[in-house]
Every structure is written in structure tokens, then in C-alpha cells.
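Internal tracking record. Fields below are filled automatically when a chain is submitted to the structure queue. Please do not edit lines marked as system-generated. If the sequence contains nonstandard residues, flag them in the REMARKS field before resubmitting.
Queue: standard
Priority: normal
Entity type: single polypeptide chain
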Amino acid sequence: MYFATNWGLIAHNEGSFTLYSNENSELFDSHLVCIGSDPRGDAYLIAYEDEAEEKRITVFDGSTFKILEPGKDFPKALNEIQCLVFDDERFIIGFDRGFALRENGEWKVIEEMGEDADELTVYDVAIAGDTLWLGTPRGVVEWRRGESKLHETESLVQSVLVDDGIVRFGLSFEGIGKLQNGKITKLPLEEDIERIVRTSDGRLWAQCGTSVMNITDKKLLPLAKALKKKEAEGL
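SYSTEM-GENERATED OUTPUT FOLLOWS
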């Protein structure tokens, strides 16, 4: 497991943590702003690179770092890269005007996502079969093989998770949204929702700006209350 931080890449393995920075490794910039993981478990990183015209992608396989260059290993002019997402067949890069998709060894840059969703920043992508669910400033875009539909929200969507046919998404300072059967409902929370995940025990969690919340059907529980509830249920 890897964590991208302002001071380097933290690797967690068998209970121990290792920090890789530009001072003790081949990582050229310790200020990391984006991380993704491919099916093999390799970490893909975007660094701050303040003066760079084009951001590079750093790949760490657990022992060595390598650099992917724009225009050679992935498309050029992907400004303000927001997310790096994989499944077994696809690699997706969200950026400030759309997303780039690598499939069957070929890259496509997609900026036109329909009349209501052209040139939108893609903050996150959730993959469900042939459908990509895109978090954008205007809501969740449902994109399937060139056809798209915008599920509009009042605030930007910066994290998306598809789980058992339900699309859950983090709304900036508004809470957790749920899209099911074409209808959007919301659990309110005045925090920036950075990530939504399901853990191995089956529970849903939201990483927020200043906290971690357990997502239930009817409410959001702070981490301490969620752990106490789990203890009580186990007794």
C-alpha cells in the first residue's frame, strides 16, 4: 500500500513504513499531488513539478522508479492531471479538459463528452464494465463508448465509487451523493470529500478534509463513533 504526501512516497508493507523522497531515492520531486495503482500494484505518481511545462508520471514497482514522458508514453498537453485510474484493460488519466484513455495499447484524448459536459475537468473516474463514471465540476458524467449523460449536481464531484450498481460520490463541502436508478440523494457534510472506499469488512468510508467518516444508508459516522459501534456489534 502506498500513500502520496507532500514530503514523498510512503510504502506500507507487513506493518512497517518506508518513506521515499528526493533525498534518499530516485524520486525527483517529493511533493506528490496524485497517485494511482495499476493491477500489478505499481504506484503511478504525479509530482508538483512547479516549473515544468508538462507533468511527467513516475512509476514505482516497489524497488525502482521510472519516468513516463508526455508525448512518448502518454499524450501531451494533459494539463493539471487530477487522477490516474486503472482496471485490467484500461489506463485513464483525468485532466483539466477531459480524460485520456489507453485501451488495447492505443491512447485517445476525450474532451467532447456531450453538449452539457464538454471540456470539463475530470477529478476522478470509477470503472464499471463498459461505463466510466466521471467526477466533474458540474456533476457525474456517465460515459459509455462515446455516449454520455450528465447527472447534474450543485457542487463539484471530486471522488466517485461504483459499488453493487450504486454510484456514490463526494461533493465539495456538501456531503456524499448517491445515484441509484437515475435519482440522486445526499448525506450532508460540510467537508471536502477527497475519497470514498469500501474496506475488506464491507463498510464504506469517506476521507474528508479533516476527518474520516463511515458511510451508512442514513447517516455519516465519525471514525471514533464507527469503531465504537463495531465493537458493540461484536459483543
